[in-house]
């Protein structure tokens, strides 16, 4: 039976197990019927582009050179706060709050729209939400203003400088990082989500997306000055005051490496004493493993989910998807910073393109 036929009736999980190595574990699925708003939303999203699992999503991320070379082809929406925008921005950029993005992008019609944030983290998150609403003319400036000019790169540099391969923070009593493989958990039900009771499923999803756009995803700006987490959607693992987000018990945390096996485990022989990922983190390969018939439902709905990717852009995009579905997900700011000092994983380059005040 074709997948679409299954989804049109009732959603019955039949996992497609992939024989791609020990990290693709085969947990025993819970054969459960799932109904209600969560499954209605998932069916719609997977039947209309399946953005989170499409390799075409890679084109969402645009580098500074592409934007500079073809700047007349883009409407630039700068989602930083007004103070940061006034301190320097790309010529022609429009400063806008995230809550106003949906209406603004829909009014722009067919022109290319590119979202710009300080470090590319929040732009990836909000860009993911807009793409999930079917707005395929939305793009993201990879690494944000930090890649446009060195003047804006201080936050990236502060998180990546002087951190040799194998570096790790040392919270008391926690074995924070290692190179051991960890496996996905059992299949579980989707989170419970209550959508607006009126309108068709597309309208209900759009209303939920608008609610999420209205809430803050912090790019890590002035984070050290705050005793609390940057927002409910992002977290910085390297701030010791909040290091409990990845603690030594992991009773209520589920850590996801949302990238490739080369990020989770460095290619080639690796000394098991050299840490390559946070303890208890599990690999989910991007653009495939969050499919409903693959491993989406191995993401626990009763835990805090922390996603990381190499630089935090892909994990922020995936966080948008999981938040939309009702998961308590956060993206790790700046990504796998502990890897950024080794070959091929350098700090994002800055092109030193002009900006205006």
Describe the structure.
The longest helix is centred in the middle third of the chain and has 13 residues, at 201-213. The chain has a single domain (3-339), classed as Rhodanese-like domain (Oxidized Rhodanese, domain 1, 3-Layer(aba) Sandwich), CATH 3.40.250. It is globular. β13, α11 (313-324) and β14 (329-332) form a beta-alpha-beta unit. Residues 1-34, 162-174, 223-232 and 238-248 have low confidence and may be disordered. The protein starts with a helix and ends in a 25-residue tail after the last strand. The protein has helices at 3-9, 37-47, 64-69, 82-86, 101-108, 121-132, 145-148, 154-160, 201-213, 261-264, 313-324; strands spanning 11-12, 33-34, 61-62, 74-78, 94-95, 112-116, 138-141, 177-178, 234-235, 253-259, 277-278, 282-285, 304-308, 329-332. α6 (121-132) packs across α11. It has 357 residues and is α/β, with parallel strands linked by helices.
